[in-house]
Amino acid sequence: MDDHRKDFNAAGDKPRQSSGRDARLDAAALGEKVYLGQDAAAFAAAEAAEAGSQLPMLMALAHDARAPNGTSKRLREQFDWLDFWYSHDFVTPLFDGSATGGDRWFENTRMTPRDRDDAFIIKAAIVSDYAASMLPYLLDLGDVDLNTRNDRPVTLAVVLGKPDLLPLLAESGADLFAANAEAFKLARQQNSFDVYTELHATAKNVQRASQKKLMQRTPRGISAADLRAGDDETGLHLAAKAGMVRLLLTQDLLSGMTAADFLKPSQSGATPAGILAALGDYATLFDERIWGRRFDEAEKVFRALDTHDQAQAEGAWRNLTRGRDIAQDIEDLQSRWPRLHLPPKENKPPKPKGPEGAP
Description:
Blueprint: H1 27-35, H2 39-49, H3 55-66, H4 71-78, H5 82-87, H6 91-96, H7 103-111, H8 116-127, H9 131-140, H10 153-159, H11 166-171, H12 178-188, H13 194-205, H14 207-217, H15 224-228, H16 235-242, H17 245-250, H18 259-262, H19 272-278, H20 282-285, H21 288-291, H22 295-304, H23 307-336
Helix pairs in contact: 1-2, 1-3, 8-9, 10-12, 12-13, 14-16, 16-19
């Protein structure tokens, strides 16, 4: 196992995309491999999907709590930070259900920073079979950032097929569009539509919160400068989440935006382009009122989309670039036949009008 795995917070900046099935969707199989001592294969598969992922370990710990075989002891020796959670009796009660009736466990969690080790206790609660009862309690205690570096809680809820957790996570501050909207991409690969449907419903339900944030930033009205402003989320991020980009188009507030504006990542790794693509709003993303004839800028955004989104955006992209393609065809024809010139458009004089303006 690589040395960096001794540090829970060792992570890449964003998940890695591949054309095949994401290994995290087979979380139970990853945990089973670690449970059986096949750590290298399990972590390599998870690493290929997300640099630094600890999902195989989380799943193996849950398995070991139900049927102990020494896995937790072995992993505690490999991960120094994990020993804290076991020595204070956090993990096993959470996974085997005994925490629900234990006053000591509830008191311990109240007094322990839940952000510790990249919010490990929150992730463990999501993996637990008792997530529906334990996660609300932990989140009600507050003081936790759900936009973690690794194994984001929203992502865990999606890959584990627990759509009922999504509204609670979103209300508690989790960014549904984190890591370039990876949750939406993973939800598309699920065998059931339940997770995908709930994810979109949750995104719809939290639009108002983004609208409120944007209005609070711009009490005197939205300007192009406001859309670019923001150390974390820009105004354009919020507008995309709030479903307000089409409204901004009608007010001609986006005509100066560049590909960099639409591809700028927030601290959680969300981009305005990724948000619009996740919501299926390709027509807005490639609207002529944004790009005009700046096809090179628009193409940067199109090429940044994954294969699925490019296929879905093809119609909107073709509508935008039709003028460029026609101009290119004319240029190609003239390069082949230099003497070929299209006749100039005839400027006909206006017809004289009859008496008193009659035709």
